[in-house]
Specification:
CATH superfamily of the largest domain: Response regulator
Radius of gyration: 20 Å
CATH topology of the largest domain: Rossmann fold
CATH architecture of the largest domain: 3-Layer(aba) Sandwich
Largest sheet: 5 strands, parallel
Shape: elongated
Strand content: 25-35%
Helix content: 25-40%
Order of helices and strands: EHEHEEEHEHEHEEEEEHEEEEEH
Strand order of the largest sheet: 2-1-3-6-7
Amino acid sequence: MILNAIIVEDEATSREILRNYLKKYCPNVQILGEACNIEEALALLRNLELDLVFLDVEMPYGNAFDLLDKVGDIDFETVFVTAYNHYAVDALNAHASYYLMKPVSIDELIKAVDYVAGIKAKENALQNRVLAPRTNTVDGKITIPLQDGFEVIQTSDILYCKADDNYTEIYLNNNKKKLVSKTLKYFEDTLDSASFARIHKSYLVNVNEIVKYVKGKGGSVVLSNGKEIMVSASRKAELLSYFS
């Protein structure tokens, strides 16, 4: 699929190299514009319908994260391009789809574009469709510890689980909440991976309770009870695979 993109990079040489690489090795990327600072980039982002933004981290009068904060809610994917690897965690927190180090590797660039193309294709396929997960039932039970014993919960009754340090909050479809002295990783390993997806470092959701996917900065899902939960970029492709 064709990806409409822009390049945000303050160095002219770096813009030219990336532009030429994309033209030669990623012909499905259509560059609609280029910017060398935050203000130019902001104008492009507000006036173009984009699938992908190649974004340098450090720019004059601010950085990539300042730019994304100014844009607000967005529905494009972001590939960070930088010479500094210490921005990796910040990039993930900003819902980056991919992180490329300078000098840009052609193989890594192709991987980044292919990854984004896969995400956008799945998003487009889901946009006008009622979500129907691969699995229609969640079988089984789990036990959660109590001071005087344990409680048995039907896994099909679980809407989502939320991390709370070394505890996990379990939200059920009867509007009840359970606080359990187990980590979210414990429940990720315990619950059926075909029916529960880790969509964020803090959330594990029952995919059968997802009724809507919302495109945005990182994307989000809406559950049957109306709860909307953000999806981290690193988990987006895995989540969308449940509905393909």
